[in-house]
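yo, Bifunctional NAD(P)H-hydrate repair enzyme is done. seq:
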Amino acid sequence: MKVVDGIEMKKLDRKAMEEYGIPGVILMEHAGMAVTEEILKDLAHQENKEIVIVCGTGNNGGDGVVAARHLHQKGFPVKVRIIGDIARISEDAKINCDILKKLRVDIKTIIDFKDVPKLSEELSRCGVIVDAIFGTGLNKEVQGLTREVILAVNRTNTYVLSIDIPSGVRASDGHICGIAVKADKTVVLQLPKIGNIQFPGADYAGEMVVKDIGIPHEAIEKSNFPINLITADMVQAILPQRRKDTHKGNYGKAYIVAGSTGMTGAAMLTCEAVLRSGAGLLKVAIPQSLNNIMEVRLTEAITVPLPELKKGVVGISDIEKIIKTMQESDVIAVGPGSGQTRELEEVLRNIFEAATIPIVLDADALNALAHRQEILKLIKSAAVLTPHTGEMSRLTNIPVEEINRNRIQIALEFAKKWNVILILKGARTIVASPDGKVFVNTTGNPGMATAGSGDVLTGIVTGLLAQGIQPIKAAIAAVYLHGVAGDRAAARLGEYGLIAGDIVLELPYAIKEIVGK
Ligand SMILES: NC(=O)C1=CN([C@@H]2O[C@H](COP(=O)(O)OP(=O)(O)OC[C@H]3O[C@@H](n4cnc5c(N)ncnc54)[C@H](O)[C@@H]3O)[C@@H](O)[C@H]2O)[C@@H](O)CC1
Ligand SMILES: Nc1ncnc2c1ncn2[C@@H]1O[C@H](COP(=O)(O)OP(=O)(O)O)[C@@H](O)[C@H]1O
Ligand SMILES: [K+]
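structure:
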């Protein structure tokens, strides 16, 4: 599903109006009806059926006014409170306000701080507050009277439904413009906005429901706005059904170079995730002295012990053996628990030069690349990098706070610059492709912020790549499945006690949930 910013949404609205001749009031009518539908669902669980709709003077307010009419028609007690000068109301909203007045709906303006205490009382007493103050048109920090009204909304215990986006959240990036409505539900119109899904704004949305308001789908499909939301349907289309007449050779050979003294666990988690993702065969390169540990735990994998010059880590003496096994494999992943050694850079350089298969780089492989990203240019095959924000900061020299403010753009620029698929991990993981597309993942939970969960993701990407899934698709499906497995683990165990191994254990069920087998 496409994700847009305010500007792109406006373009699509305009296209619907100008190229297809759909008048703005019709779009507004659909928006108001979609909102009404959701309010009716919420009211079904509610004793108190009174609704207060707080409107701004833009089209978001207009959507609220349309909802007021439909709720009034159905016999619900509705109050409409418009913040600011009603003379400045948008044209389509005015048409709808005029109808409301003729229907004698209780409609008043809030023009002074003096009006706020009375409004606060109404907001506390009603059953549902509808937030129609700002939508995609929010363009500056929220101050003065509107700020007071939002504070009043947030002070109540009343159920709050926001139209399109919680007022105060900037649609283009999820920035909070000083203050924002804390919604229980957000009825997103036509397409999710970046601010609905990126933090901090995403935290204000509550439950999200996306509703069609009649913008022609072909216009949306033609839009070249690059951001997409990863959905279950998309992942289902990526994961092939297994043909009956197949054997392990059909599901690929994965090769993992991971682990060092003290960090064999990282290698194990990655390997288990590769196997649980359905790869046909797995080889793992491991320093000789750690081989026995791996053999005991990883029954299904083949270990390839490496002679070690420096005990417990992979180094330049291992290059020949690594390249040889790589040449017999369908994908190679390097980095989880490899340890930070200077020699790893040289190992990577050799892998990059020789590889004709997809390469997955994580953890210490990424650390080895920091300040030496230019060696990425040696890669002739596809590469998938999986940094968390800290690793991304080391890779790019951009401070963590700045990355967090601008995750999509920074991920995209890196992917394009170095011609790699970049998975920027964290709450709302971003997958960016070198051809300029971005995919945002919304599965997963803070229980996954635990040692080793990244190693599991590396294993899933690698396992899917082994099976010949196209790299960008493997990355998309992996982050989604990783999150679903984490959500399943959290549902069973809670977020506190969840550990990375639980994600691996839930992975088969997550895949089954999507594929059906
Ligand atoms: N034809 C359309 O464009 C449609 C728009 N729709 C709705 O309209 C919304 C967008 O409407 P608009 O573009 O009118 O914008 P909004 O309704 O989001 O509000 C913008 C208004 O608020 C003012 N404003 C912005 N930031 C402010 C701040 N911090 N403090 C005080 N005033 C501020 C602006 O100057 C403008 O007057 C969407 O989110 C959606 O809900 C839907 O009705 C569907 C059709
Ligand atoms: N709050 C969260 N919401 C969703 N996913 C999360 C959250 N916190 C962490 N994760 C996921 O868990 C994984 C953590 O990876 P990482 O930080 O590399 O851990 P490690 O290095 O210990 O393996 C990432 O895939 C990340 O997206
Ligand atoms: K709103």
